[in-house]
């Protein structure tokens, strides 16, 4: 008997002995799996038939959990007030920061306008004084008293 023949018959290590081949472990595992599948299927069919023929059970834990998680409908006004109650602080904060930014921008703009108006007044005053000084110098008796 060759080594390949021994593998095919499941007689590893007893090549010289005349023992009948033992059951293949793979076949026995497949037989157990098939048996378990049949039992599970039969139990499921029995439960299915029993549940169809019997009255409905009390609500189970899953049904109670789903019922407790499902929100009950609330009046629209209550939902709107809840939204306002939650969003108002955030909106007020944003409006407050926006108001501070606006006040800062208006203050800086006002400062720029004041400086430009003051500068225009100074330039106008300097121009008038220069004209008056230039006009007095050209008059014939402006320097005599």
Please explain how this structure is put together.
- Residues 1-29, 119-145 are annotated as: Disordered.
- Residues 135-145 have a biased composition (Low complexity).
- Residues 1-10, 119-134 have a biased composition (Basic and acidic residues).
- With 145 residues, the protein is mainly alpha-helical.
- The protein is 74% helix and 0% strand.
- It contains four helices and no strands.
- It has helices at residues 3-9, 25-53, 61-69, 76-138.
- The longest helix has 63 residues, at 76-138.
- 0% of the residues are buried.
- The mean pLDDT is 79.
Give a topology summary.
Elements: H1 3-9, H2 25-53, H3 61-69, H4 76-138
Summary tags:
mainly alpha; 145 residues; 4 helices; single chain
Shape, per Cα inertia axes: elongated
Order of helices and strands: HHHH
What do the pLDDT scores average to? 79
Structural class: mainly alpha
Could you give the count of β-strands? 0
Strand content: under 5%
> Cα-atom Rg, whole angstroms?
51 Å
Largest sheet: none
Short description, anyone?
With 145 residues, this protein is mainly alpha-helical. The protein is built from four helices and no strands.
């Amino acid at each position: 008997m060759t080594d390949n023949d021994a593998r095919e018959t499941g007689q590893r290590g007893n090549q010289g002995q005349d023992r009948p081949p033992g059951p293949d472990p793979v076949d026995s595992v497949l037989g157990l799996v098939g048996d378990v599948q049949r039992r599970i299927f039969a139990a499921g069919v029995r439960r299915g038939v029993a549940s169809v023929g019997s009255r409905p059970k009390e609500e189970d834990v899953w049904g109670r959990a789903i019922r407790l998680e499902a929100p009950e409908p609330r009046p629209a006004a209550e939902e709107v007030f809840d939204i306002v109650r939650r969003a108002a602080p955030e909106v007020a904060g944003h409006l407050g920061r926006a108001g501070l930014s606006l006040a800062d921008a208006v203050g800086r703009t006002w400062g720029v306008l004041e400086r430009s108006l003051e500068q225009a007044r100074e330039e106008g005053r300097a121009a008038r004084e220069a004209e008056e000084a230039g006009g007095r110098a050209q008059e014939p008796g402006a320097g005599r008293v």
